[in-house]
Design goal:
The chain has eight helices and seven strands. With 253 residues, it is α/β, with parallel strands linked by helices. The chain has two domains: 204 residues, 3-Layer(aba) Sandwich (Rossmann fold), CATH 3.40.50; 33 residues, no CATH class. The chain has a seven-stranded parallel β-sheet with strand order 3-2-1-4-5-6-7, with helices on both faces. Helix 1 packs across helix 8, helix 3 packs parallel to helix 4 and helix 4 packs parallel to helix 5. It binds NADP nicotinamide-adenine-dinucleotide phosphate (NAP).
Length: 253
């Protein structure tokens, strides 16, 4: 088991990619802090993943748009003894070009996707420094690597996460902290289900999203989770500042 006796924080761990990652870390023996807002989803994820074991999972209700919540969450997890892995996975999505994007909506998206990841990193890094190292994995997107139409705020937020990854990798390499990034392509999760639900023809839109990628299908949460676990594991011990595309070949075109 790759994560036995390790403590892992997964933000956005109640649904989709984060839930799959939390379950995979628990299968590998980790103690997992599952961080998100909705109490029912969080409790459900904790119950389901904890029952499978062998690792333990605890849901910590946290709004990543609030610094005080993040500070409290990190202090809480620190009581477990160590923080070995931080996965900055939580994210929100929004459509619109610059003319359609209201400042308040832009700021709200940035608060979660960028500032939330910055603050989690800010409060976890000193703990990792004191214990002699750790691993941070940021979940960006194919939209962080290439422009995608009509989602300007989301694209900017995901490019910022790549810059956060590279900057922190350089700043903290000497302290044994590796910082890497996974860029998923479209993956069937509640986030994508909701976006498809807003399309005039959801089936045609799904087919379009599949057909623009060489592997001609959407990804699964388990496939993205596997990449997150690799980046967090000792197998990736010589990897820092890296950006791993898991997108069915989309950005290779
Ligand atoms: N699915 C894709 O196609 C895809 C592709 C590329 C990248 N990504 C990225 O992968 C990550 C996960 O995506 P997903 O599809 O699994 O999303 P999802 O199904 O919508 O799940 C998002 C998770 O983030 C949490 N979250 C949202 N806002 C939060 C906040 N303010 N504070 C704390 N938690 C918050 C949600 O819980 P609560 O709402 O209860 O807080 C939920 O657990 C995101 O960063 C996304 O941008 C996804």
């Amino acid at each position: 088991m790759r994560f036995q006796n390790k403590t892992v924080i997964v933000t956005g761990g109640s649904l989709g990619i984060g839930r799959a990652a939390a379950a995979a870390f628990a299968r590998e023996g980790a103690a997992v802090a599952l961080v998100s807002r909705d109490l029912a989803n969080g409790a459900d994820a904790q119950r389901e993943i904890d029952a499978l074991g062998p690792g333990e999972v605890r849901f910590i209700a946290t709004d990543l748009a609030r610094e005080a919540d993040i500070q409290r969450m990190v202090e809480d997890v620190q009581q477990w003894g160590r923080i070995d892995v931080l996965v900055n996975n939580a994210g929100v999505y929004m459509q619109g070009d610059v003319t359609m994007t209201a400042l308040a909506d832009w700021e709200q998206l940035m608060a979660v996707n960028v500032t939330g990841a910055f603050l989690c990193t800010k409060y976890v890094v000193p703990i990792m420094q004191a214990q002699g190292g750790g691993a941070i994995v940021n979940v960006s997107s194919e939209a962080g690597l290439v422009g995608i139409k009509n989602q300007v705020a989301y694209n900017v937020s995901k490019t910022a996460l790549i810059a956060l990854t590279q900057s922190c990798a350089l700043d903290h390499a000497a302290q044994g902290i590796r910082v890497n990034c996974v860029c998923p392509g479209t993956t069937y999760t509640p986030l994508v289900e909701a976006a498809l639900g807003r399309a005039s023809d959801p089936t045609a839109e799904r087919r379009r999203l599949e057909s623009v990628r060489p592997l001609d299908r959407l990804g699964t949460s388990d496939e993205i989770a596997a990449a997150i676990l690799y980046m967090a594991s000792d197998e990736a011990g010589y990897t820092t500042g890296a950006v791993l595309s898991v997108d069915g070949g989309y950005t290779a075109q």
